[in-house]
Amino acid sequence: MQLQEILYGAAITKLVGTTNLDVNALVFDSRKVAQGDVFFAIKGTLSDGHDYIASTISAGASVIICEQMPGTLETEITYIQVENSAVALGIMAANFYHNPSSKLQLIGITGTNGKTTIATLLFKLFRELGYKVGLISTVQNHINDDIIPATHTTPNPLALNGLLNDMVNAGCSYCFMEVSSHAVVQHRIEGLIFAGGVFSNITHDHLDFHGTFDHYIKAKKSFFDRLPKSAFALTNADDKNGMVMLQNTRASKKSYALKQLADFKARIIENSFSGLNLDVDGTDVFFKLVGSFNAYNLLAAYGTALLLEQDRLAVLTALSTLTGAEGRFEYVTSNQNIIGIVDYAHTPDAVQNVLSTIQNIRKGTEQVITIIGCGGDRDKTKRPIMAQVACDWSDKVILTSDNPRTENPQAIIEDMEKGVSPTNKRKTISILDRKEAIKTACHLAKPGDIILLAGKGHEKYQEINGVRHHFDDKEVLTEQLNLLS
Ligand SMILES: CC(=O)N[C@H]1[C@@H](OP(=O)(O)OP(=O)(O)OC[C@H]2O[C@@H](n3ccc(=O)[nH]c3=O)[C@H](O)[C@@H]2O)O[C@H](CO)[C@@H](O)[C@@H]1O[C@H](C)C(=O)N[C@@H](C)C(=O)N[C@H](CCC(=O)O)C(=O)O
Ligand SMILES: Nc1ncnc2c1ncn2[C@@H]1O[C@H](COP(=O)(O)OP(=O)(O)OP(=O)(O)O)[C@@H](O)[C@H]1O
Ligand SMILES: N[C@H](CCC[C@H](N)C(=O)O)C(=O)O
Ligand SMILES: [Mg+2]
């Protein structure tokens, strides 16, 4: 492809060399550069791509996109200076793939919790309604029935536009994608054209990356600020910051709520282990998803479908048949009638929501045993709070490892223990090994008891020092529960 063609829309501040040349691929990692590639020098959280410019030229790069020109310039190379290389990558990746987001209806879902659930519900719903659809999510990506493994909640711009292009080629008319706050700040969604944006909620997470809660709100809000006038922006009016998200958007403002006045309204009639009975805009419907937080997710999916001009009753009928995403409130029952729940709750709010749901639907005499850990190289301030919430809402708590990544797992548990009050200490034990922790919970449980295994949901690995070891919460919990009988 010609360099000129992919530069359209990129804000160039200085150009040295020709733009009249054929380029091979766009690359932002020096270790992957090949002959004829365009290398984007991006300033990251760990290193600065500008430090690798010389090595990419040795590896065959013919074009360098950078924020600062190198001290010495090679004669055969084209150097393009831009204000922000990550923004340029987003725009040029979209051009490279002929702007696939403009050829289908792309809906972005953002918020602390619920993105995967809402995106997955919408994907399944639109498949049920007979459409060709794409999904970009934490668990996995989909192009109709084909599964493409996911590495991030929101992929990098090249992977993202590549996926969207494959969706267009497969005839998809809709794509539902999660938009993480990391993706917004790192400009992974630059150059995409959204037909709609959906906000779920915002609570404590990722303060290691965003610094303050205010910056975290601004990151989410900037997704709505950049939506075009032709799009819709659907927010959760019950969330304290729901309306803030829409303050400066040009998109058409819509809302959903259980408590406030809103364009799409629902009321919980009944919430049990078998599902949710809701009144949705005057229609009584039974859904398979469990927990009041899922009433919000269902309502967000319903509102989005109606804004995409789908038939209301067809939408409600199809939604009522759907299950949620893998690893979200998934439960197994042992022969001894012990209930094991696997859930991806990895924020204080999610842990509280899941445990309060269990509280609301339990009979009262059984114990709730929670197994919980926190991820390494992630927000340290949420650790004591997650432990505290787990203790406040459970009869017994086992603190254990999640994904320690590059941190010492024992130190992560000690951070969590700081949130355990003296009165809660007696119901808490710490077991470093996650499998041992699960085994212990199963031994402690009596018939009728409920075990919540929180934090890793669908994940099929435990990441320790850069190595992903096979670990599947549902598999281990089921195995341990079966060993009891
Ligand atoms: C903190 C974070 O988001 N990091 C992401 C970021 O990496 P980074 O900024 O640390 O990159 P860096 O290592 O500093 O390098 C800067 C630049 O130099 C380049 N480089 C670096 C080394 C080298 O030898 N040569 C070279 O060219 C890199 O390719 C990069 O372009 O950009 C990389 C490329 O896109 C991502 O893979 C990486 O995701 C890491 C692995 C990650 O774990 N991210 C998580 C936190 C994340 O993004 N999570 C959200 C979901 C969160 C949620 O919803 O809960 C997600 O969307 O997945
Ligand atoms: N609407 C909601 N409000 C609060 N908590 C929720 C909501 N939906 C789901 N949760 C809780 O959050 C967990 C994660 O849900 P989900 O995977 O849908 O969120 P996510 O936003 O995609 O998360 P991530 O940021 O990791 O991608 C669930 O397992 C559940 O415990
Ligand atoms: N998208 C989230 C997932 C957290 C899942 C939890 N198991 C952990 O490893 O912290 C993150 O990257 O922060
Ligand atoms: Mg997700």
UniProtKB/TrEMBL annotation:
Post-translational modifications reported in the UniProt record: Carboxylation is probably crucial for Mg(2+) binding and, consequently, for the gamma-phosphate positioning of ATP.
Binding locations of meso-2,6-diaminopimelate: R378, D402, N403, P404, R405, G455, E459
Cellular component aspect of the GO annotation: cytoplasm
Subcellular localization: Cytoplasm
Record-linked SUPFAM superfamilies: MurD-like peptide ligases, catalytic domain, MurD-like peptide ligases, peptide-binding domain, MurE/MurF N-terminal domain
Catalyses which reaction(s): UDP-N-acetyl-alpha-D-muramoyl-L-alanyl-D-glutamate + meso-2,6-diaminopimelate + ATP = UDP-N-acetyl-alpha-D-muramoyl-L-alanyl-gamma-D-glutamyl-meso-2,6-diaminopimelate + ADP + phosphate + H(+)
Name of the protein in its database record: UDP-N-acetylmuramoyl-L-alanyl-D-glutamate--2,6-diaminopimelate ligase
The organism of origin for this protein: Pedobacter metabolipauper
